[in-house]
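Hey,
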Amino acid sequence: MFSERDCSSAVAAVRDEYAPDAMVLDCDRDFETLAPARAEGLGLVVEALEPASYPSSWLPDASPTLLERYVGSDLTIGMPGDGSIAWTRQTTPPVVLVKPRVEGTPESFLNFLLAEALVELGLEVPEHFIGFFEDQYRELDKAVALDPNDTYQVAAALFDGWVGLQTRDEFATWHGTHPDLADAWQDAGTRLEDRISGLPRAVARGETSFADATELACSGLKHALELPAPFAALDTEAYVEHGPAYAVQWAEKTFDSLAE
């Protein structure tokens, strides 16, 4: 089910620097969330499994089933929004999981995605947005006034943006040490620029949902792109420092203005 991946020299160097204990594993099947039996199969390649759990009181009355499961005591690895690469600290050592869907991804960008996961492990940010928002997730749910799935998407995007504000400082230093990875990071940002600049019009015309727009804009944070309003207000050191409280306040102001 899982096999150790041979990493490029650049990715190996990033692992040595940021997460020297981490294992990078290829998965034999795609997944959004690993089935419990498959998640427990990680026990064959790691030293220990330590399922994360959180108070159910952090969740709104209506939440996606997968989020309820993640908060519970079951070993839940991988969640919607993780993309082609997932990582977890619910194992000892921590692991980065590479899904088969990466097939066809340009090698330079795949190496960047692997390096990004290792940097996130090294920064010791929460594994999932519920560990970031904690009980303030209920406040976010009230602020955004969307259905549970869209609220999940907005929360995941805001969390990714908060992480991206921190990882981009690392990526920006790589031009001298890991030039190929730095170029891949910069190239990915360039590809997002036109889509992000047109977000306000797309949302106003109903061509893009607010949740999708938030996801795209917050992905721009990790690439240090200039964001349009209202997302530009997230590109600040205050967001790094105040995290969930800032995100909730931003959501309240944003949805109040949308309602006017």
